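Memo to structure team: turn this sequence into structure tokens by end of day. - J.P.
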Amino acid sequence: MPKVRFISPLQDLTCEVAKGTPILEAAEIAGAQVGHSCGGVCACSTCHVYVRQGLSSLSEQSDQEMDRLDQAFDVKPTSRLSCQAELGDADVEVFITEESLNAFMDENPDVRKALLAEGKWPVKK
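Reply from structure team:
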């Protein structure tokens, strides 16, 4: 089973999931802070991540995913929507984008409030 490592300025988490699992589902299993305003149905770009390792092992991008990525912030050649990218056999390393992290905080105000109280949010660059 492939391992997925999620990296952000706030977290560094790894989990092992079955081949064919979308990155977004792996993020939920790991407790990674990946936003998904549309619920993971490819109707927004808030689950946008950068794949740092294992990009070629992921499922191919659909036209719908490419269209949605056109709406994302700071798209790179390694960008994927985590709700659409399904894991292959290889381990994957994912960096959670600022867009996705902000969306997660909007979706989880209690987490944002706790991080504010700890002085960990907003992330200092």
